[in-house]
């Protein structure tokens, strides 16, 4: 059996689809299944069992001999939440329990970290120098929680025989319908264009960037789950890895390509970045992907133009899930 936590969420549900596509059907999905808006993400998938996240460790104690691999992708991901205690519960303490359980039962583990650990990027976006990790200063409690766990993991004497932490950059794609404000700008763009014919982007409050010129490493969720699938079979070279496309693009690029995928004439307006995130806003992110390549991952990452076209035309317009 393969365990996937956060399974009704965005990335994890797409991973379940990828596993099903390769005939991995004995999948144990772990989540808070009382959140109804996420449930369509896993409808129709081939699954072995549903386990509530609150009772998962008791389940694992009883069933660990049947488990082959653990993908721990469940997390609280709201970057506007400013109470660190909220993230301590799921992102830090629950992850520590997961790590310790995988050590105890000799299970390989892949877990979700985040590019939010890099903060404003002053120290770069490389995953090769672990001595830098304690020096990172994330811009919000969400990023702190992910960085705290990465550093805790690196300090442990007892580790799973194989483990990998994946620093997700700006992931977009199908199955993010439930994410509200935290959904990708592409989903927000699609909805705005459909409703109003126009798209609103944040103004730049940094003189080094024009309005719409803010740059992020946007990575298609299908590429993300391919990396997870690779690690399922690789099971060596433990460590923390960036997971982006390796290419920063502007929000203007993103908006223009969304209009293009819809066959619409671009109409883009700008408004002030909300004050609650303005001082903690990343203006540039770009993953250094050489470390993942060095262990043998050689599939190309989807160009933004192609990813947006696939997402819009094959999922957003028809309202389909992956």
TrEMBL record:
Record keywords, A-Z: Carbohydrate metabolism, Isomerase, NADP
Active site, per annotation: 142 (proton acceptor), 179 (proton acceptor)
Pathway: Nucleotide-sugar biosynthesis; ADP-L-glycero-beta-D-manno-heptose biosynthesis; ADP-L-glycero-beta-D-manno-heptose from D-glycero-beta-D-manno-heptose 7-phosphate: step 4/4
Cofactor binding remark: Binds 1 NADP(+) per subunit.
Binding-site positions, NADP(+): 10-11, 31-32, 38, 53, 73-77, 146, 171, 179
Gene3D superfamilies: NAD(P)-binding Rossmann-like Domain, UDP-galactose 4-epimerase, domain 1
Binding site for substrate: 170, 181, 188, 202-205, 216, 281
Cofactor: NADP(+)
Domain NAD-dependent epimerase/dehydratase: start-end pairs: 2-244
Record has NADP as a keyword: yes
A biological process from GO: carbohydrate metabolic process
Superkingdom of the organism of origin: Bacteria
EC nos: 5.1.3.20
Family: Belongs to the NAD(P)-dependent epimerase/dehydratase family. HldD subfamily.
Physiological role: Catalyzes the interconversion between ADP-D-glycero-beta-D-manno-heptose and ADP-L-glycero-beta-D-manno-heptose via an epimerization at carbon 6 of the heptose.
Subunit description: Homopentamer.
Domain comment (free text): Contains a large N-terminal NADP-binding domain, and a smaller C-terminal substrate-binding domain.
Name this protein carries in UniProt: ADP-L-glycero-D-manno-heptose-6-epimerase
Organism: Hymenobacter sedentarius
């Amino acid at each position: 059996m393969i365990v996937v936590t956060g399974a009704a969420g965005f990335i994890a549900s797409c991973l379940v689809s990828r596993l099903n596509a390769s005939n991995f059907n004995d999948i144990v999905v772990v989540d808070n299944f009382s959140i109804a808006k996420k449930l369509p993400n896993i409808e129709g998938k081939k699954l072995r069992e549903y386990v509530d996240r609150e009772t998962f460790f008791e389940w694992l104690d009883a069933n660990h001999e049947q488990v082959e691999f653990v993908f721990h992708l469940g997390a609280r991901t709201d970057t506007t939440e400013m109470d660190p205690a909220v993230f301590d519960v799921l992102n830090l303490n629950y992850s520590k329990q997961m790590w310790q359980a995988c050590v105890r039962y000799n299970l390989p583990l892949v877990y979700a970290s985040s590019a939010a650990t890099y903060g404003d990027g002053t120290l770069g976006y490389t995953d090769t120098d672990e001595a830098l990790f304690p020096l990172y200063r994330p811009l919000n409690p969400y990023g702190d929680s992910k960085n705290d766990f990465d550093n805790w993991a690196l300090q442990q004497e007892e580790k799973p025989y194989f483990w990998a932490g994946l620093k997700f950059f700006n992931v977009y794609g199908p199955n993010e319908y439930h994410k509200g404000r935290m959904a990708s700008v592409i989903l927000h763009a699609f909805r705005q264009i459909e409703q109003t014919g126009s798209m609103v982007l944040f103004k730049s409050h940094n003189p080094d960037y024009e309005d719409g010129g803010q740059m992020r490493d946007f990575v298609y969720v299908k590429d993300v789950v391919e990396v997870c699938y690779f690690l399922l079979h690789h099971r060596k070279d433990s460590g923390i890895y960036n997971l982006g496309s390796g290419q920063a693009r502007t929000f203007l690029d993103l908006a223009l390509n969304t209009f293009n995928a819809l066959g619409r004439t671009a109409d883009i307006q700008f408004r002030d970045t909300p004050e609650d995130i303005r001082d903690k806003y990343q203006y540039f992110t770009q993953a250094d992907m050489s470390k993942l390549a060095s262990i043998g991952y050689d599939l190309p990452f989807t160009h933004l133009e192609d990813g947006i076209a696939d997402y819009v035309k094959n999922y957003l317009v028809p309202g389909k899930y992956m």
